[in-house]
Amino acid sequence: MQKAKRIDVHMHIVLHPELVPDCKWGGRMLTAEEHMEYWDKIDIDYGVLLPIVAPEGQLHPMPCEDAKIVADKYPDKFAWFCNIDPRFMNNAETSDFKVMLQHYKNLGAKGVGELTSNMHVDDPRVQKLFAACAELDMPVTIHIGFKEGGCYGIIDDLHLPKIEKLLQDYPNLKLIGHSQPFWMEMGTDVTEENRNNHCPTTKVEEGRIAELMRKYPNLYGDLSAGSGSNALMRDEEYAIKFIEEFSDRLMYGCDICAKTNDLHYKFDAWLNRMVDEGKISIENYNKIVRENAIRILKLDI
Ligand SMILES: [Zn+2]
């Protein structure tokens, strides 16, 4: 069996690089063309564009429309998500996001996210958005934040009780977990103090992620960024077991936000070595880097 080309399920782009300010990460986000320049080096041939529309954690938005424009320009290279901030429309609990979601779905959006709004998971406005996503079968990539203010992402407490309730309440909602406070729950050594740490080096004593994924088939894992890739790389022995058990629900991604980002090269080397050493089967590798994304996100490739 051949190793499949990879799909990056977590991409942000900028359409007009000459017009945007530098981000806090050092430099600005990359254009689609700049992303494609490193694809060959790490075996990617397709990407999913995730708009960012909430004001937190960024200096400029990436509108849904930009994502569609790029995907239309390179139809064999990109799919796109739409994104909605739960404060859109009237910043009201009565806002109905189904009309907007249906609009973007009709235009070809494959999901919703990255949801970065710094609002509590159980906020009625947030719940309203999730209900609409469940109803319209739009998978959602979530960035979980650990507090209100001083970070971005939907807020849950330590050990993710509100995310669990969400998974229970909306069994049809496909939730794609991402960010430090999500992946730090891989182990039991997560605390209020360290839950925003993206590169722990401690061995994993099985924590909430495996428990939640076992209990809720509608929870998926986004392996992008330091948070996702390091959740595997921090403990090779545990990663082997984790990948074996959840091989149908993990998706490869990079989340490159500036030219200075380089963690994807480390993850690339790790993945290749794990396959070469027979620690990850090619079958599971192909699921993680490509096939799951096509199935879960219903990509037209
Ligand atoms: Zn991101």
SSE blueprint and pairings:
Blueprint: E1 6-11, H1 32-39, E2 44-49, H2 64-73, E3 78-80, H3 98-107, E4 112-115, H4 124-135, E5 140-145, E6 154-155, H5 161-169, E7 175-178, H6 180-183, H7 208-215, E8 219-222, H8 225-233, H9 236-245, E9 250-251, H10 263-276, H11 282-296
Parallel strand pairs: 1-2, 2-3, 4-5, 5-6, 5-7, 7-8, 8-9
Helix pairs in contact: 8-10
The protein binds zinc ion.
Briefly summarize what is shown:
By secondary structure, this protein is α/β, with parallel strands linked by helices.
Q: Would you write up a description of this structure?
A:
The protein has 301 residues and is α/β, with parallel strands linked by helices. It has one domain (6-296): Metal-dependent hydrolases (TIM Barrel, Alpha-Beta Barrel). The protein is built from eleven helices and nine strands. The strands form two sheets. Strands 4, 5, 6, 7, 8 and 9 form a six-stranded parallel sheet that branches. α4 (124-135) links the parallel β4 and β5. The two termini are 20 Å apart. Zinc ion binds next to loops.
